[in-house]
User: What shape does this take?
Amino acid sequence: MSELPFNAVLVANRGEIAVRVLTAAREAGLKGVAVYSDADAKALHVEIADEAIHLPGKTLSETYLNSDAIIAAAQSSGAQAIHPGYGFLSERADFASAVKQSGLVWIGPPPEAISTMGDKISARLKMMESGVPVIPGEELSVPDGADHLGQLAACAARVGYPLLLKASAGGGGKGMRAVSEPKMLRTEYEAASREASAAFGDGTIYVERLMVGARHIEVQVLADSHGNCIHLNERDCSLQRRHQKVIEEAPSPVVNSELRDAMGAAAVRAAKAVDYEGAGTVEFLLSDRGEFFFLEMNTRLQVEHPVTEMITGIDLVLKQFEVAAGMPLGLNQSDIGITGHSMEARIYAEDPSKGFLPAIGDLAMWRAPAGPGIRVDTGVREGDSVTVDFDPMLAKLVVHAPSRTAAARRLHNALSDLRVLGVITNIGFLRQMTMHPDFVSGSITTDYLDSTDISKFAEPEIDPSSLVAIAAAASRFGLDKGGSGGDGELIDEHTGHAGDPFRTLSRSFP
Amino acid sequence: MEWSIAETGIRYTAKLSDSEGTMNLSGFTADGQESIHGEISITRDSQANRLLVEIDGSAHIAHVAKVGDDWWIHLDGRIHVVTGHEPGSSSDSSGEGGLNAPMPGTILEVHVKEGQRVREGQTLLVMEAMKMEHRIQAPKAGEVVRLNFSEGDRVDMGATLVELGD
Assistant: This one.
């Protein structure tokens, strides 16, 4: 890739995404430069980098969020480009500008695109202007004594049912009424208006479409600096817990080719509206009636980008490098197809039986599955500590199979082969989820997990005698004393003892 | 050695008979009562941390790792934690009356005062750890003997937050 204007890339991130981007850089023939904080001195992303620069300091704002230190690290290492990964500084327009002003290549969209899309109001206005559907809503101000109902009915018809009547001056649920059909409009409006006037002295009402049973569908876009912009199909991320995605898949089980074309075209319009460059994601809510509405645009690489890579065969990080280098995409919309089905499960250090409380400890064993159609993107390895310092996502387990049914089975089996000992994870929960009829049938909506009793995904009780016999036998065999060769045995480097998960709390990678 | 699985509180013992390096389960108790158990024999593998387990005539592989008092076991696609206890040790850690911080974090709210009677399940404190709020609740009815922290305090994991008396 001699045409690239840079031959070394600094990755301003940590964990699995830093590993992913550094690996891509090396594959592209570029030098990969990592940055790390004290806690990450022995982290995997540091190990695989060609060069690693230490960021001194204790807090995130002194390290991974420290724009000046990161730009200085790029300059001192000779890296001519910066890739921000996701999170941290990736959607900070001021950082993108600072990188450019210091003469470095910013591997991301123009700062103006980041700031327009980063503000909900400016993004919504921009989308309306560009003909991208947004969640319908209108404010209705009716002076006392006027024909409020006629105006309201017309407004409600424009917005569509079911809808939400909200007192503009409202709050705390006061003056908020859901209306499922036109004949209920009058009663609910009068109730909402009374409540609102009583509570706030203002009867102005905001009418917004009520989204129930919606799915989260997002479209991957790629744009270059020559005006080319295409979409790479959708991802379905409807399985969420408190807005945190759990399993993502591509393609969506509910999007047909007609809807895909429409959503893809809308996503491309959204990207073009802000002169987007690089890889980005336009998120939509898809209603149960098949209408879709713009939610927001993520102006960076997504956590779940691998499922798109699996079904399209396109390396999104490599494309980011090429676009940042000023190269044309070299792809037309007609070049983008869908091969098979892909799913990604996020492996978190958390305890589903305790309200998904984040878990910490040492990874006494970390053995990832392998085989056809299995990809594991991880930032950890056996022996690493999981601490409170960072996000509890340990890895992403991605599968690719010819059909959705085959992908769900492959994911279930791969989860069963993911052997993580020493830290509580959501693996058991994900195993149950991938077998559950609601998941297998593809009928999950965004409210599903938050309105479902989580205990139904608990793994069934099993005969205790075999487990106790195994523990007793393992002790008798002396497997806790380092065994023969100590494969997988974790020894604390300071004490020489098998690691207590809590002793190393303040350190990261012993 | 006594064993427990997850937080059921049941204490198990297993009697193993050693036959040329193969451990056969010959006795199994749950809370002191003889219990039925499978035909289980366990052999070491050349790989440390891997055991060959025969359960009722079918072969399985168990991957194991010891962390503290816990044996972590991966068996048939599932991950289990079996905790070892010295015989005679207390079966109820909350019986000691101390309530410990489950994670390092910050105390957000204190709902009780020293000397106050509380009922089982009553929220004593709310703390924030890893950007999530956790309620610290009374495991039993009793009197708040000592409150060790106030709102805004940082606490380490395992720190005794509240001491409860009968």
